[in-house]
Input
Amino acid sequence: MSTSTPLPPEALDDWLAVLAAGLDLDPADVPVGVLLDVARDVAHGVARPAAPLSTFLVGFAAARNGGTAADVEQASATATRLALDWSSTHPTEPR
Output
């Protein structure tokens, strides 16, 4: 069953625990703040639909490069830099 009701902020830790367990990951290894920052920067600098794609690619790149916390940090920094560059070189039209 799916729902369109957003996850309340206080439930984020609970969801992380469930999803991490389901994916056989340690929730302590997930840099939630870093990933949310990437999603925010991409959503604001590129487009909202680019945020989940970007966080997936950050995780994928980090995994392919070793999967350490430093690999996640490096991939996140790259995504943020590219999103900020994108927003300065691809101005949006007024809404």
Q: What stands out?
A: Helices lie at 12-22, 32-45, 50-64, 69-89. The chain has a mean pLDDT of 90.
